[in-house]
Amino acid sequence: MGRSSYKRLGDYIQPVDIRNKDNAVDKLLGLSMTKQFRPTTSNIVGVDLSKYKVVDKHVFAFDTMSVIRTGKVPIAVNLTDDLIIVSPAYVTFKSKNDDLLDPLYLMMWFSRSQFDRFAFFKSDASVRGGYNWDELCDTLIDLPPIEEQREIVAQYEAITRRIALNERICANLEETAQALYNKMFFQGIDPDNLPDGWRMGTIEEFGEVVTGKTPSSRYPEHFGDYMPFVTPVEFQGEKFIRTAERNLSIEGVKALEKKVIREGDVMVTCIGSDMGKAAISNTEVVTNQQINSIRTYDNTFSEYLYYTLKGMKEILMGLGSGSSTMPLLSKRSFEVVEVLYPPTDLIQCFSQTVKPLSTIIERKSKEKDILREMLFLLILKI
């Protein structure tokens, strides 16, 4: 699009300041760095919510205080039919005319990393001390005709619906596998009075424990087909890890060859609030030091280990050393964590039963990655 398609955003948006005067709305939400509304973390006991701002459908909320600290613009639009309330410190606004500026197109535009970088630059350079409402209004937006905006939005919504469908399918399959796990290894099982052939074991009996390591800066990253380097963020909420964008060069892989995790090995976060999040590697990877991985002696144990460790978050948190806000579970402490060791044939039976479900979950997870990449490319178009 040519420069002529750029418009001053302030000419197309207007502030909204509706207060919760009668306390009719009690759904209080905050803003996340991922540009979504989230449950508030504020203590609201005794707080007068009548002063909070009401956000209706297609109304935006904008936190002007965080841009300079985080380099991101916490901003979100309410896409639901439910009224919510937000902090009175937030700026709330909407499109003046949805037939000139589509709210979802505008949210897509706010989602671009280029917008965050621009806002951070303006925050640092602004004589007015930040990226606030005035700065937002002075920002230029690439504004095509409304028909083109809505076509882009329609493509975006089609992809996000497919992602949501995949997530529901994966969640249902995980619930099915978890229910089977509970039935076979949890319900009616007394750890102090185990059936014949059952015993308590330790994690190190299932495989060699490897703690990851961040590669030296001497070795350049490579964006290609070399070994992926994985941190906990790549597999939060996923059964199978998502391949990181950051790949190690051949030199980096050789330097960390003792740290390489194989396809089918089980990885567990071992530091901080993410402690105990588990995933199964779907390729050879190297992880950072926040992850303990189990190189299984028998790859038919992977599914059993995953569902076992998935339910041990609180136990692992309790075994961590250090501060309560940043506990650390060392390799040795992790190796000797007690876990139930049922008969091998029962473990293998469970694995064979849930493997078809896992295959579908992995396929859907890979499809989600492709769809997310499509969203990224679509956002780049604007």
Characterize the structure shown:
This protein has 382 residues and is an alpha+beta fold. It has 10 helices and 18 strands. The protein has helices at residues 67-70, 103-110, 113-125, 133-138, 146-185, 250-255, 302-310, 313-319, 331-335, 344-380; strands at residues 6-8, 13-15, 29-31, 37-39, 53-55, 60-62, 75-77, 84-86, 91-95, 140-142, 199-202, 207-211, 229-230, 266-269, 278-280, 286-287, 291-296, 338-341. The strands form 7 sheets. The chain has a 4-stranded antiparallel β-sheet with strand order 2-9-6-7, with helices on one face. Strands 12-17-14-15 form a 4-stranded antiparallel β-sheet. Strands 1-10 form a two-stranded antiparallel sheet. A hairpin with a 5-residue loop joins strand 3 and strand 4 (37-39). The termini are close together.
Arrangement of strands in the largest sheet: 2-9-6-7
Q: How far from one another are the termini?
A: 9 Å
Low-confidence stretches: none
Largest sheet: 4 strands, antiparallel
What is the strand content?
Answer: 15-25%
What structural category arises from helix and sheet content?
Answer: alpha+beta
CA gyration radius, whole angstroms: 25 Å
Helical coverage, percent range: 25-40%
Query: Helical segment tally?
Result: 10
How many strands in all?
18
**Overall pLDDT level:** 88
Gross morphology is elongated
Order of helices and strands: EEEEEEHEEEHHHEHEEEHEEEEHHHEH
